[in-house]
Design brief:
Blueprint: E1 7-15, E2 21-22, E3 25-26, E4 28-35, E5 41-49, E6 55-62, E7 66-71, E8 89-107, E9 114-119
Antiparallel strand pairs: 1-8, 2-3, 4-7, 4-8, 5-6, 5-8, 8-9
Length: 121
């Protein structure tokens, strides 16, 4: 069945990962991907900053008719590089097939923890 959902490029302009951890809970962000196509989504992630050059080389996949919750605090790019904590950033998500992207942030910096989520642009 041919479906016409999603797109191949998504932007998340507001990224920031705190170093805060409360017990087993860790502040983190995730790109939640839904692939409703019949092929595996090959995903490329580029990270942009206010004061430095972008970081490229992060990749992920999402199988057909599946989801993948890509934890941005755990993803590792070329040369073992990670997205830095305590630094504002933005993310470009590119895929070979249309996908749907949602951005989520778990913030445990305050006693009343917060979960924020939004559909990417």
């Amino acid at each position: 069945m041919e479906r016409d959902f999603g797109k191949k490029e998504w932007i998340i302009p507001d990224g920031f990962m705190s170093d805060t951890q409360k017990g087993e809970l860790v502040s983190h962000e995730a790109v939640c991907v839904l692939n409703l196509s019949e092929i595996t989504a090959e995903i490329k992630i580029t990270v942009f900053f206010e004061d430095r050059e972008p970081i490229e080389g992060f990749t992920a996949t999402c199988l057909p008719n599946r989801t993948n919750h890509i934890r941005l605090d755990k993803i590792i790019g070329k040369n073992n590089i990670k997205i830095p904590h305590e630094v504002p950033y933005a993310v470009l998500i590119e895929s070979n097939t249309p996908i749907i992207c949602q951005h989520s942030r778990m913030d445990v910096t305050q006693p009343e923890m917060a979960l924020m989520t939004t559909i990417a642009y």
